[in-house]
Amino acid sequence: MVISTAPVQEDWDDLCRATGLDLQPPSSPYWAGRHGFDAGDLSPEAYWSGVLGHPAAENEVELLESLDAALWARMNPATLDVLHSLSNEGAQLALLSNMPAGMSRRFEAAETWPGYFYRRYFSGRLGMAKPDPRIFKHVLADLQAAPENVVFIDDNPANIQAAEALGIRVVLHTEDTDLRQELDLLADPA
């Protein structure tokens, strides 16, 4: 929830109407298998069947995939402004996101924000997810970047800790984070 905002109740309600289940609580079946889905360990059919508690039909999967993407499609305008500015300044931006493969393809095809990033790494396509150190090592190797030359921004403290343990500079993003200010401080620590 750096580029996007937290899902709104209306989107959870749409998912509830489609499934007959309240999937918002952290104890719900939506979250129980989510890490495996994000990491590419579960197909959409397997994930949604687990959520529903019965085999999901193809048309159900298509609908639920669409509603799931809508949960995460509300963009954070402050972050988009920073991305636009950084892109105009020539910054090399890369994205590392825990996201199922299908959702990542949907966003790349339909949204403009992926265009800010010259490299995009989606957990569902890589077969591993944050906070697994392997995913950070993969990104660093692919970027041919030293950890100290990378700034990782994330809203999850576990992901921040994993990146920091590898020597990557970090920004923990919250609703109150002034991202531009945080990046300026990292650029000029004096």
TrEMBL record:
Highest rank taxon of the organism: Bacteria
NCBIfam families for the chain: HAD-SF-IA-v1 (TIGR01549), HAD-SF-IA-v3 (TIGR01509)
Protein name per UniProt: HAD family phosphatase
Organism per entry: Arthrobacter gallicola
